[in-house]
Amino acid sequence: MLSFVITLVNHYEERHGTRPNVVYMSQSHYEYLREEMPGVRAHDDVVAMLGIDISLSSETVCPHVATAEFLEQRILVS
Hints:
By secondary structure, this protein is α+β, with helices and mostly antiparallel strands. It is 41% helix and 24% strand. A three-stranded mixed sheet has the order 2-1-3. The chain has a two-stranded antiparallel ribbon with strand order 4-5.
């Protein structure tokens, strides 16, 4: 899962000329990602290692990345 997310980030950056700042994934995808990071305990550490925020949604079938603008607890996806 970690290599998949990194590939998503790299492809997004190549296509859009900017790095995404959020990855959308399901809880099960997140758990797979965490299994690949056994030394990382806190969620903030996972985010720091990826360099992008994580948004969990049960409706996300396949992880995807985007650039989102964060304003006053609201997320506006561009």
